[in-house]
Structure of Sel1 repeat family protein:
Amino acid sequence: MKLATFKTALLTTSITLALVGFSAVSHAQPNITTNAFLAAAATQASSPVCDSSECEAEMRRLIRLARNGSGDAAALVAMAFASGDGLEQDDKEAERFIRIGVRYRSAIATFLMSDWYRNGFILEQNEEEADNLLEQAVALNHPPALYQKATQLFASDNPEDFEEAMTLLQQASDENLVNAMFLLGRMRQIGAGVEQDLVEAGELYRKLIIAGVDDARPYLREVTEDLEAIGANDQTIARFASTQNIERISVTGSAFRVNTQLTGIVRRLNASGLYDSRSIGSRIRGVTCEQSGSQCTVTRPSSEASSLSDIVGNN
C-alpha cells in the first residue's frame, strides 16, 4: 500500500472508529472495524480525505475540545497527527494526544493506543501494553475492542474461553459492528460451535445488506434457499428474498463523507456541554458546572441552532 493511501485510510479509520462511540450514529448502520476499513479505503483512496478549509477548521475545534477534556476528540487529533491528513504529520504530537485520550478514559483512544502498541506504529511495539489497553477498551464496551478480544479468545486452545468469546462477539454484534455481525451470522448459519439458527443468521445478513454491505448478499441467498428446502415460514422467506433485491446507490465521495462526519462529531461534543472551558462555576476539565455541585449556569446550543457555526457560537 502506498504511504499516501495508507495515511488516507488511517484517518478515515479514525473517523469510523469514532462514530462507533456515538450511539446516535452507531445504531444507524453498522460500522467497519480497523482492518476491514483499511482494506476498503485502500482500494478507493489516492488523495487526502481532509484537504478542505472546512475540515481543517474542524480539526482546530477538535484540538480545543481535546484540551478541554474530550478524550474522543483527542483520539481523532492523534490520528490526524499520525497520518498527516488534516494536520501536519507529527509523531510526538500523535503520541501526546493519544495519551491525553486514554487519560480521559476514551474507549476510542484506548483501543487505538492498543493497536499502535501491537503494531509498533508511532509507539514502540509492546504486546503487554497492547493487551492491557485492549482489556481497558473491552471494559469500556468499545465494539471493535469486544470483537478483537473475542477473536483472540476463539483462537485460544482453552475450551473455557469459548463462552466468553461468544458473549463478547454477541455484544459487538448488538452494537452493529460489521465484522462481528458477519462472524456471528456465519456461525449461526452453519452451526459452528453454536446451535444452528438460520433465521437469526438471515436477520444479521439482512441488516448488513440494508446498511449497504453487499458482501452479505450471497450468504443471505444461501440461508433463504436452505429455509425454503426445510419448508420454513413463508413470510420470513419472502422478507429475506425482498432484501436481496434492494439496490444501494452511492454518490458521496470519501472526502465529503469524512468532512461531514467530522462536523457531526464536533457538533455532538460541543452540544454535550462537557468540554467548554469557559463554563462558569467549574474549572475541572470534562465536568459541567451542574456536575460540580456549584451554583452556576452553562451556555448550551439552543434548540434553534441549525448549523455548526450556530452551535460553536453559542458555546
